């Protein structure tokens, strides 16, 4: 039985009078892909924003490897192994792919990313470690052949893969993917599915928010379903697909 790497306990978030999350609890096991699905406005992005430290919770706990992190900064969480990607690809277009991925290594070291991207003050063993990490991230995301390509000329899907590669270079134990398939066409989604499975197979846990149900059902080991900020079901894809409350709240419209 795998142990839990990330535990969410009684998480709450209010925006003024809007209760975006209500007493949400779930956990992610080591080396599993967990899907987070639900209708628009059900609280998926808010959950990722609270887990990553982009927003503070109103209440509840977030534990990474048994340590409470809900009061820590986003950078401290990255250094502890909790990283994320964003819904919109946000990249530095003038960097090469390799330089861009290196930024992720620096996020882990908590050193000025821009200074380190231009290779200031790295000793030989540190340089080797960075190159190894970058090579692994490029391999996992299928971007090896593009290592020396300028980011600005990549396709939209490749830029999304680059965000994943950059996040992987921070040496995560858990990676949060916020709508990674947005705007992708069929063969790009297939590439993404394979990538998510390869990441999982290295022992990294993956939380995926996604509206594309075929991708979620194919790639996830377990799924948490949100509705109005609360969990209405948790289980395997087969269990979720058959759950009447989920069909009623979401899958009826998404399928
Ligand atoms: N910064 C904010 N200020 C006020 N209300 C917010 C804010 N962010 C989210 N909300 C509200 O919180 C609720 C949950 O929103 P959230 O974006 O987390 O949902 P979601 O499931 O990610 O939706 P979508 O699938 O459309 O991205 C919604 O009612 C939303 O309007």
From TrEMBL:
Keywords: ATP-binding, Nucleotide-binding, Transport
Transport is among the record's keywords: yes
InterPro entries for this protein: AAA+_ATPase (IPR003593), ABC_AA/LPS_Transport (IPR051120), ABC_transporter-like_ATP-bd (IPR003439), BCA_ABC_TP_C (IPR032823), P-loop_NTPase (IPR027417)
SMART domains documented for this protein: AAA
Family matches, as SUPFAM superfamilies: P-loop containing nucleoside triphosphate hydrolases
Domain annotation ABC transporter: ranges: 6-253
Keyword Transport (UniProt): yes
Molecular function via GO: ATP binding
Pfam families assigned: ABC_tran (PF00005), BCA_ABC_TP_C (PF12399)
Protein name, as recorded: ABC transporter ATP-binding protein
Species annotation: Paracoccus maritimus
């Amino acid at each position: 039985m795998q142990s839990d790497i990330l535990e969410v306990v009684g998480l709450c978030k209010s925006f003024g009078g809007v209760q975006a999350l209500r007493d949400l609890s779930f956990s992610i096991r080591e080396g599993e892909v967990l899907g987070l699905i639900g209708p628009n406005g059900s609280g998926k992005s808010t959950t990722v924003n609270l887990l990553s430290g982009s927003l503070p919770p109103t209440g509840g706990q977030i534990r990474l490897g048994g340590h409470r992190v809900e009061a820590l900064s986003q950078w401290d969480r990255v250094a502890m192994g909790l990283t994320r990607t964003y819904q919109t690809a946000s990249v530095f277009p003038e960097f090469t792919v390799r330089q861009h991925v290196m930024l992720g290594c620096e996020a882990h070291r908590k050193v000025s990313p821009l200074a380190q991207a231009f290779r200031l003050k790295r000793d030989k063993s540190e340089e080797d470690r960075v190159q190894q990490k970058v090579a692994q991230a490029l391999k996992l995301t299928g971007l090896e052949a593009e290592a020396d390509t300028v980011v600005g000329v990549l396709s939209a899907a490749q830029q999304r893969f680059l965000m994943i590669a950059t996040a992987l270079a921070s040496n995560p134990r858990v990676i949060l993917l916020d709508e990674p398939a947005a705007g992708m066409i069929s063969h790009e989604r297939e590439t993404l599915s394979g990538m998510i499975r390869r990441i999982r197979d290295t022992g990294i846990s993956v939380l995926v928010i996604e509206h594309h149900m075929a991708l979620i059902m194919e790639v996830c080991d377990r799924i948490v379903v949100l509705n109005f900020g609360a969990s209405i079901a948790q289980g395997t894809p087969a269990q979720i697909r058959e759950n009447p409350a989920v069909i009623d709240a979401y899958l009826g419209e998404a399928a």
